[in-house]
Amino acid sequence: MSTTASSRYVRRFGLGAMAAAGAMVLAAPTASAAEARLTMSSDNGTYSVWSTYSLTVTADPAMQGTATFCTTVDRITTCYKPIQSSNGIATMQWTPSKQGTYEIEAKYVYAAPDGPNGSYGLRARATIRVYCPGHQGQSWNCPRP
């Protein structure tokens, strides 16, 4: 802010408003640069009904938090019990029970130790196609083996 502009700002809004505006910038959480990555185990890049896969969310930088995994297939969303992270990593085992296109979302909630009080959330998403075992790319009913 130039001297003239800052003088106008002080006259228009008062010195307290100028100090508050500066304080808002200083109080912004530094953890806002954090991100989450979702990774999944697979069968050589494919996914089959009734097989078990690991879903992992990793917070970068590593910070303690809680992860919740949700899957959506055919407009039905299922969210699983929240998992405490260990060193910024949370993993759960998942077994798809029907074929289709799945939207998988990991939500990671943490408290920023170097920012203002409160919780912050990270999200990571992926889309995968799950097939019946032995019938990749074809539409079949998938009876449980």
* Biggest sheet record: 6 strands, mixed
Strand content: 35-45%
The span between the termini is 70 Å
Give the CATH H-level superfamily of the largest domain: Macroglobulin (MG2) domain
Total beta strand runs = 9
CATH class of the largest domain: Mainly Beta
| Class per helix and strand makeup | alpha+beta
Unreliable sequence segments: 1-31
Helix content: 10-25%
CATH topology of the largest domain: Immunoglobulin-like
What is the global morphology?
elongated
Protein name: Ig-like domain-containing protein
Keywords: Signal
Organism: Nocardia amikacinitolerans
What features would you describe in this structure?
The structure is a single chain. The chain is of the alpha+beta class and 145 residues long. The protein has two domains: 29 residues, no CATH class; 98 residues, Immunoglobulin-like. Helices cover 16% and strands 42% of the residues. The protein contains two helices and nine strands; from the N terminus they run ααβββββββββ. Strands 2, 4, 5, 6, 8 and 9 form a six-stranded mixed beta sheet that branches. It has a three-stranded antiparallel beta sheet with strand order 1-3-7, with no helix packed on it. A hairpin with a 7-residue loop joins β8 and β9. The longest helix is centred in the N-terminal third of the chain and has 12 residues. The N terminus is likely disordered.
